[in-house]
């Protein structure tokens, strides 16, 4: 399932990842576009932009595979090509984990100081808009060309993206991050339902059986969760439904492109802009009347510079961790990505419990573990019994 887990996108600094390109006898590194991990159906990698200069010459033939890291008149420093590739992959996975954990921490920290989840949802989407525009303006990514019919197709997907992200932010603000993450682990259940309703997809029975541990784990965790909140539970479930809808509808657009240059990365960028535009009226409807008073009360405690800085940082974390997820998904097999995604969720729960000192009951830990392990079981079942 997709996470807002997904929606958002990748390391500004890491967003310009590198991919190996081969000539007749050399392998060069060139900038590559990313693809969102939390955006499981959007798993088509954007074509890498050509590079004119070789950054790190690599030799690859039957006899030798190596990359030159540095050279001078008296010698050079080289590493085996497999080692370089593994180091690149490790860096991507570490960046993905780090940015995702930091997003959850910063989001909860800002919400604790500025309790306006709709405005936070709007700001985190809005920070990604100029980033996408910059990529298009500089030619790093090709500008998408979408006609009227294409916009009509994308409208419900953009709405699902907006609702899913808002539901996730509200859930994180209403309860403990650990609890919201546990509930969001149930996204595969809703994906299966939406896949059947919209696409008519019927999975093998083994896939449906793998959903039961997820459901059971969420139920067990909810029973004795020390920071249980109905608002957090309901909003996390709404987020699951919205992101499941986004995943299924996005799959349709990837099978039948709605315009030119609409690869996965550009599709996510367009959806981010649409979600931002759709969130504006809703955010001001629910919180517009109180935003001035809440802002004044918040800045009186934490200060205006702190609040503005952390809102911007939070938005960058959100967009960039999705961009790194794009790059990571392009580098690994689906089952490897599923394992990493499971470990990432555990890292988020552990990190946020430590930072915010939110205790979890023993049965809550057991329930969360069952639910998270269930999401891996579901991913494995889909790969083994497609």
Index terms:
386 residues; alpha+beta; 5-stranded antiparallel β-sheet; two-stranded antiparallel ribbon; 13 helices
Give the domain tally: 1
| Mean of all residue-level pLDDT scores | 76
Which structural class is indicated by helix and strand composition?
alpha+beta
DSSP strand (E) fraction? 5-15%
User: pLDDT below 50 for ≥5 consecutive residues: which ranges?
Assistant: 1-56, 59-63
Classify the helix fraction into a percent range. 55-70%
- Rounded to an integer in angstroms, the radius of gyration calculated over CA atoms is 21 Å
Task: Please trace the helix and strand order, writing H or E for each element.
Answer: EEEEEHHEHHHHHHEHHHHH
Report, as a whole number of angstroms, the end-to-end distance: 15 Å
* Largest sheet features: 5 strands, antiparallel
Q: Biggest sheet, strands in spatial order?
A: 1-2-3-4-5
How many strand segments? Answer: 7
**Oligomeric state of shown chains:** single chain
- How many helices? The count is 13
Tell the overall outline: globular
Task: Give an account of the 3D structure.
The protein has 386 residues and is an alpha+beta fold. The chain has one domain (86-384). It contains 13 helices and seven strands. The chain has helices at 81-113, 117-137, 148-174, 177-184, 187-199, 205-209, 211-223, 230-255, 264-287, 291-302, 304-331, 334-356, 362-384; strands spanning 18-22, 26-31, 58-60, 65-72, 75-80, 145-146, 259-260. The strands form two sheets. A five-stranded antiparallel beta sheet has the order 1-2-3-4-5. A hairpin with a 2-residue loop joins strand 4 and strand 5 (75-80). The protein is globular. It starts with 17 loop residues before the first strand and ends with a helix. The relative contact order is 0.20.
């Amino acid at each position: 399932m997709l996470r807002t887990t997904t929606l958002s996108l990748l390391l500004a600094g890491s967003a310009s990842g590198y991919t190996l390109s081969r000539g007749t006898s050399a392998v060069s590194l060139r900038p590559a576009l990313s693809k969102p991990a939390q955006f499981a159906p959007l798993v088509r990698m954007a074509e890498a932009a050509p590079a004119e200069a070789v950054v790190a010459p690599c030799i690859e033939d039957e006899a030798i595979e190596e990359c030159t890291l540095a050279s001078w008149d008296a010698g050079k420093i080289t590493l085996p090509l497999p080692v370089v590739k593994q180091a690149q992959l490790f860096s991507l996975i570490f960046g993905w984990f780090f940015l995702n954990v930091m997003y959850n921490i910063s989001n909860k920290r800002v919400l604790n100081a500025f309790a306006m989840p709709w405005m936070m949802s709007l700001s985190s989407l809005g920070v990604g808009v100029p980033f996408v525009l910059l990529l298009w303006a500089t030619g790093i990514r090709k500008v998408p060309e979408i006609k009227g019919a294409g916009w009509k197709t994308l409208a419900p997907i953009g709405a699902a993206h907006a609702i899913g992200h808002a539901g996730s932010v509200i859930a994180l603000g209403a309860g403990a991050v650990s609890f919201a993450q546990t509930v969001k682990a149930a996204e595969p259940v809703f994906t299966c339902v939406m896949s059947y309703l919209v696409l008519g997809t019927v999975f093998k029975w083994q896939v449906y059986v793998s959903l039961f541990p997820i459901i059971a784990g969420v139920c067990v965790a909810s029973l004795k969760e020390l920071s249980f909140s109905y608002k957090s539970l309901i909003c996390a479930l709404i987020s699951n439904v919205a992101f499941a809808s986004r995943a299924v509808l996005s799959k349709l657009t990837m099978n039948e492109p709605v315009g030119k240059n609409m690869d996965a990365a550009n599709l996510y960028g367009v959806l981010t802009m649409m979600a931002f535009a759709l969130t504006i009226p809703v955010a001001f409807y629910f919180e517009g009347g109180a935003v001035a008073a809440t802002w004044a009360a918040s800045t009186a405690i934490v200060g205006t510079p702190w609040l503005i800085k952390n809102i911007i940082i939070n938005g960058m974390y959100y967009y960039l961790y999705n961009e790194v997820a794009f790059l990571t998904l392009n580098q690994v097999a689906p089952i490897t990505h599923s394992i990493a995604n499971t470990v990432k969720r555990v890292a988020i729960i552990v990190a946020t419990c430590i930072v915010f000192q939110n205790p979890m009951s023993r049965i809550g830990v057991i329930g969360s573990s069952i639910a998270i392990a269930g999401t891996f079981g579901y991913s494995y079942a889909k790969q083994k019994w497609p």
